[in-house]
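REQUEST ID: PR-0412
SUBMITTED BY: lab tech R.K.
PRIORITY: routine
TASK: structure prediction, single protein chain
INPUT:
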Amino acid sequence: MHPQRRSEVRVEDCTLIVRPPGNPFAIKVFTAATRADAELYAAEHGAAVETLPLP
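STATUS: complete
OUTPUT:
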């Protein structure tokens, strides 16, 4: 993975979440524009991409 750069993303722009099982420190949120990154991250960590807001 590449080092993450800070961007001007606001929390309300985050529409996707990846929650790797057994590792709450690895939870990441993504925007719709970065869905491909979310899919890759989920695949690497045995997780699924979920849509926010969660029920």
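NOTES: The chain has a mean pLDDT of 91.
REVIEWED BY: pending
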